[in-house]
Amino acid sequence: MTTKERFLRLADELSEPQMDDILEYAARQREDPLLSAITSAPEDDEPLTPEEEAAIAEGRADIAAGRTVSLEDVELKYGYR
Is the per-residue pLDDT at 25 higher than 90? Predict the structure, then answer.
């Protein structure tokens, strides 16, 4: 089954408000050059540098150890709430 066929099958199952949301999203994708560039950009296939791998490992270790800050705490600290 093609993507278009899957979409059409899904469209038959959605409510009118859901389809309105999807149509608005699709229109924005076509009209916004930045969104278009982002969604059509090729995947970054460059290998990670040793520094990037170390930073990822450090972040994962922080998460595993519970050294995290919630989004709510960040928003409160910087006045977004």
Answer: no
For 26-50, the pLDDT digits (tens) are 888 778 888 888 888 898 889 999 9
pTM of the model: 0.45
Task: Count the alpha carbons within 13 Å of 27 in the hemisphere toward its beta carbon.
Answer: 6
What residue numbers bound the domain in which 72 lies? 48-81
The pLDDT of residue 38: 86
User: Could you tell me if 30 and 52 lie in one domain?
Assistant: no
Residue 74: is it exposed, middle or buried by C-beta count within 10 angstroms (0-12/13-18/19+)? exposed
Clarify whether residues 32 and 54 are in a common domain.
Answer: no
DSSP secondary structure, 31-53, as one string? H-HHHHHHHHSPP--PPPPHHHH
